[in-house]
Design goal:
A hairpin with a 2-residue loop joins strand 4 (about 85-90) and strand 5 (about 90-95). By secondary structure, the chain is an alpha/beta fold. The strands form 3 sheets. Strands 2-5-4 form a 3-stranded mixed β-sheet. Strands 1-3 form a two-stranded parallel ribbon. The protein has helices at about 10-20, 30-35, 40-45, 60-75, 115-120, 120-140, and strands spanning about 5, 30, 55, 85-90, 90-95, 100, 105-110.
């Protein structure tokens, strides 16, 4: 996906912001995309090189990634950041939860968001669907 830098963000920061660490692995779709509109997912993939994103729009995602990495570096849990794969009717999807507590079978997926964004029911519904997808995958993987 091509980037613009309208606000002239310094190159080292721009490079960091534009570095996408999300990887769905060898899957057709990730759990986070599974709950998006199929038309949006298809059109985005089909026109990926025509969609320009300005670097400054990547700041919230960058902050979320930084928070995740920091929490992960301090967490001594042995079941964290594991990518799971499931196949249903020939379509493979992958998901990576942030932490799994074996005692109580609790799945955790950290979210960094604004209060305004949290107020939208759609976001909370998406997050619930995401956690339910992880639960399905964990149930099949017997972690």
């Amino acid at each position: 996906m091509p980037y613009t830098n309208i606000h002239n963000i310094p190159e080292p920061l721009a490079t960091a912001l534009a570095t996408n660490t999300h990887d769905k692995g060898d899957a057709h779709i990730s759990v986070t995309s599974l709950w998006k509109s199929p038309q949006m997912v298809h059109l985005t993939a089909q026109h990926e090189h025509e969609i320009f994103i300005d670097i400054d729009n990547l700041v919230p995602s960058f902050i979320g990634t930084a928070v995740h990495k920091y929490i992960e570096s301090l967490d001594r849990s042995r079941v964290k950041e594991i990518r799971l794969f499931s196949t249903i009717e020939g379509i493979t999807f992958s998901g990576q939860f942030d932490r799994y507590e074996m005692d109580g079978a609790i799945i955790q997926d950290y979210k960094v968001t604004s209060a305004k964004s949290f107020m939208y029911e759609r976001h909370r519904s998406d997050w619930e669907n995401q956690l339910n997808s992880y639960a399905y995958q964990i149930g099949r993987a017997h972690v």
